[in-house]
Amino acid sequence: METRTSGLAPGLYIVAGPIGNLGDLTPRGAEVLRLADVVAVEDTRVSARLLRHAGSDRPMVPYHDHSADHVRIRLIERMASESVALLSDAGTPLISDPGYKLVRDARAAGRAITTLPGPSAAIAALTLSGLPTDRFLFMGFLPSKAKARGDALDEVAALRATLVFYESGPRLSESLSAMAAHLGDRDAAVSREISKTFEETATGTLSELSARYADAPPKGEIVVTVGPPGEAPPASAEDADAALREALTRLSVSKAAGEVAKKLGLDRRTLYDRATELKG
Q1: Over the range 58-90, which residues count as b (16 or more CB within 10 Å of their CB) and which as e?
Q2: Is the Cβ–Cβ distance between 113 and 103 less than 8 Å?
Q3: pLDDT in tens, the chain (280 residues)
Q4: Which of 69, 119, 160, 195 has its CA 20 to 30 A from that of 255?
Q5: pTM value?
Q6: Which ranges carry the RsmI HTH domain (predicted)?
Q7: How many Cβ atoms from other residues are within 10 Å of residue 15's Cβ?
Q8: Which of 202, 132, 147, 197 has its CA nearest to residue 169?
């Protein structure tokens, strides 16, 4: 077995790389790339440039989630006595990038796992969007087929959170139009080429942004952020009566009032009085 000389403890090191500007690689990430026994990369041609920037001459091994099982098994075997750095083409590994299976199996094998935080296009786009950031859901890439894409959007339409999607230029306008149809014409932002020379963030409603890019698909890496749904209009008296009548077929006056109050956000005492009238 080869003698380890890197100075890093054996195990897996998840290194977040830049999403554009090479200067965004953290000093700690650069150090691991210089010291690791081997660097598992998504594409050796892409990662070679970053390793040169970091001053690293460490050997690279191609790895992605569709690699043959023996590639992953061999890397996990090496982690017992060597340091293995994991690097994707851009940003944080595992976030719409390879690495999940490697981390899963390394943990199952009892290997030490260290993450070195850094850039993520999804997080960077959130900070640029001007949309709420207290709750968000990362959706990755939507399915390419219309039916599957619509089903994915319907599943999260009621979620009170900002939604984050990755997208490509040729699909952008169509995807924005589908979002408007399934989510409602919400406020949104399209961020592209984050941290690069031609960085741009365009804001507007989903339909406005779809029209903007219909005849001019943008180039580069794209993130779409979509604001949460607006506040639902307050329930009307008719809505309350309908809900109470249905609840009274199953529940006592008190419990029916409590259930409808919780469901519609209305005053329980007022609903109790109205339920008593309806019951009578």
Answers
A1: bebeebbeebeeebbeebbebbeebbbbbbbbb
A2: yes
A3: 444 456 899 999 999 999 999 999 999 999 999 999 999 999 999 999 999 999 999 999 999 877 888 999 999 999 999 999 999 999 999 998 889 999 999 999 999 999 999 999 999 999 999 999 999 999 999 999 999 999 999 999 999 999 999 999 999 999 999 999 999 999 999 999 999 999 999 999 999 999 999 999 999 899 999 999 986 677 889 989 999 999 999 999 999 999 999 888 889 999 999 999 998 7
A4: 160
A5: 0.79
A6: 235-279
A7: 29
A8: 202
Instruction: Quote the tokens at residue 217.
Output: 């698909």
Chain position carrying tokens 């061999």: 74
Q: Residue 221 is encoded by which pair of tokens?
A: 């890496």
The amino acid that residue 123 corresponds to is I
For 86, the 3-state DSSP assignment is strand
